[in-house]
Design goal:
single chain, about 375 residues, Tetrahydropterin Synthase, Chain A, 5-stranded antiparallel sheet, 14 strands
């Protein structure tokens, strides 16, 4: 049956005056799964009319704008008579001429099918307790919903429309669902002193919490949500940049640990290497290095000079490790740590990607290296 959206029926057009009476069954056959509610488009339904309600549907009889009865969902013809519905005695009595001054409406509701619907929210201000700063967060996902109380749904939402679809439900509740999700993100981060990463780890409990709050709100409309899910958080660019810098720092520490060099030692070696490259230095002590050194490093550097007086300059610091990878069936490299991070961010290097570096016998998966593995856990 065709839908009649935004049409007011004040009777029947010529040629359709037999709709709704004995011999012309009233039923609803949805044209798509997105149709939820259907109003039979004619209001001069008479005593003895036959209604067919599918078992996945519920149907309701309205007289003069008031719901007076539900119609059994048997899938078989059901005749509207005064014996079945006492209200018909006063309303559908077919006065002389075959017309009635009263309006009778029949509404059908699909109550069985669960529909998957998207949701999303952006611009949520949250305070990250790890980095102690505010960020703007977003998220999106899906949820299923179905109508649990057809009569309540019609009274609260449908009004005088002749049909109601999934899109209509989305339009009515999108803002409400998004507002609940936004407030829940902010509340739980504040209450539990979470970072954005901590919020992501609580995704499962967040989904259930939001679903319960939404259902408490939608109960009065005869709707229930299920399988509310957060597919992804939309992270702000500033937050991603901080994570990348942190990952580089972790990778640098791991690299130095593998070389047996502390960060302090690495700083001293870097200073001496730069001083040795200075053509106007003559000797290391002539480079004016003291101005660039912290108090602790200056003291250590002085000790180093006493111990090495009269000796040759130390060997240059060990070279930074470089990595080769098998990408797309081809061997590529060498890559520095920064280049490796860029490839990981681009999704081209994964924990299962084969790699090789100086000193290794065979190619191995990146996850076997403590340094490379730390890059994935830090991003």
């Amino acid at each position: 049956m065709a839908l009649y959206r935004n049409i007011t029926w004040d009777g029947q057009p010529a040629g359709r005056t037999k709709e709704g009476i004995v011999g012309a069954p009233i039923y609803w056959r949805p044209e798509s799964n997105r149709e939820i509610v259907y109003k039979y488009p004619f209001d001069n339904i008479q005593n003895g009319a036959v209604v067919i309600v599918h078992q996945t549907q519920r149907a309701f009889l309205f007289l003069n704008g008031a719901m007076v009865s539900s119609i059994p969902p048997t899938g078989a013809p059901y005749r509207l008579t005064t014996a079945n519905i006492p209200y018909l005695q006063n309303f559908l009595n077919v006065p002389t001429g075959g017309h009635t001054p009263y309006t009778a409406e029949i509404w059908f509701v699909n109550v069985e099918t669960e529909r998957e619907t998207p949701w999303g929210v952006g611009g949520v201000p949250v305070f990250d307790n790890q980095f102690e700063t505010d960020f703007i967060l977003g998220a999106h996902g899906m949820y299923n919903f179905r109508i649990t109380d057809g009569g309540q749904f019609i009274k609260k939402l449908v009004g005088t429309l002749h049909d109601f679809t999934t899109d209509d439900v989305l339009q009515n509740f999108q803002f409400k669902i998004s507002s609940i999700a936004s407030q829940t993100f902010s509340d739980i981060m504040e209450a539990e002193k979470l970072s954005i990463a901590g919020l992501q780890r609580k995704r499962g409990s967040l989904e259930k919490q939001i679903e319960n709050i939404v259902n408490d709100t939608l109960y009065m409309y005869g709707i229930r949500l299920s399988n509310f899910s957060i597919h992804e958080f939309s992270l702000p660019a500033a937050y991603t940049e901080i994570l990348n810098e942190k990952a580089k720092g972790v990778a640098e520490r791991k690299r130095l640990e593998e070389l047996g060099v502390t960060y302090k030692d690495a700083r001293q070696l870097k200073i001496m290497e730069e001083a040795a490259k200075n053509p106007g230095s003559g000797t290391i002590t002539a480079a004016g290095i003291g101005a660039t050194l912290s108090t602790g490093v200056t003291s250590n550097f002085g000790d180093f000079m006493k111990e090495t007086a009269g000796h040759a300059m130390p060997s240059p610091p060990p070279s930074l490790p470089q990595y080769h990878f098998v990408l797309g069936g081809a061997k590529v490299g060498p890559y520095t740590i920064d280049q490796v991070i860029a490839q990981i961010n681009a999704g081209r290097i994964t924990p299962g990607t084969l790699f090789w570096s100086t000193g290794m016998r065979d190619w191995q998966e990146t996850q076997t290296s403590a340094t490379l593995r730390s890059l994935f856990s830090s991003l």
